[in-house]
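To the wet lab folks,

You asked to see what we're planning to order before we commit. Fair enough. Below is the target structure as tokens, and below that is the sequence we designed to fit it. If anything looks off to you, flag it before the synthesis order goes out.
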């Protein structure tokens, strides 16, 4: 791990432990084992470190999506994959994405930090909503819209169907964040949720 990577890793750990507002550049530099002026050679500010962490999260997500043979951001491309995916493969994909968000170090720590800070910082509350509510719902809504248009799914309200799909997954993720010992229970519920969604909206 080079110095730039170590700065991001240690900063994210500190943010998740103390909250973004309570961490200063000197704290990050000390954790890395360098002086603040040396840190500024890599990142101009704490905000620049924060933005670089988001970029790293996006990079990791792209790698994960590619490994699972989907695009992950282009709903039109992914609709063609999901419409023909056997249910056992759909369950496997759902589990792998759930476990990725639950255990990926960047996602886990970043989500913990935003969970704390959303009540103290309006801008960070917006980041939380964008990353874990607005963006997933936008992608899923577009994906389901394509599948409804193709006759694969059936509904007269794509927005509500999207909430039916995403809200339980988000709920299970937050449970596991608070109570890691409930992971296996959550995975079983996730499987049943996906199966029932298939039955309710007619992908089969």
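Sequence we intend to order:
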């Amino acid at each position: 791990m080079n110095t730039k990577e170590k700065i991001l890793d240690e900063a994210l750990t500190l943010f998740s432990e103390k909250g973004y507002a309570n961490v200063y550049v000197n704290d990050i530099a000390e954790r890395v084992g360098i002086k603040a002026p040396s840190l500024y050679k890599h990142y101009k500010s704490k905000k620049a470190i924060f933005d670089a962490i988001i970029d790293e999260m996006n990079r990791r997500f792209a790698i994960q999506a590619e490994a699972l043979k989907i695009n992950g951001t282009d709903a039109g491309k992914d609709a063609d994959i999901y419409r023909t995916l056997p249910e056992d493969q759909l369950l496997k994909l759902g589990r792998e994405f759930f476990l990725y968000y639950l255990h990926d170090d960047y996602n886990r720590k970043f989500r913990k930090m935003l969970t704390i800070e959303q009540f103290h910082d309006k801008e960070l509350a917006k980041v939380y909503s964008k990353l874990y509510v607005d963006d997933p719902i936008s992608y899923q809504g577009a994906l389901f819209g394509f599948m409804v248009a193709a006759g694969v799914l059936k509904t007269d309200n794509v927005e509500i169907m999207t909430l039916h799909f995403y809200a339980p997954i988000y709920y299970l993720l937050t449970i596991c964040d608070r109570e890691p010992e409930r992971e296996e229970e959550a995975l079983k519920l996730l499987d049943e949720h996906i199966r029932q969604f298939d039955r309710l909206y007619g992908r089969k």
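Structural context that might help your review: Residues 53 and 124 are 14 Å apart (CA to CA). The two ends are 46 Å apart (CA to CA).

Thanks,
Computational group
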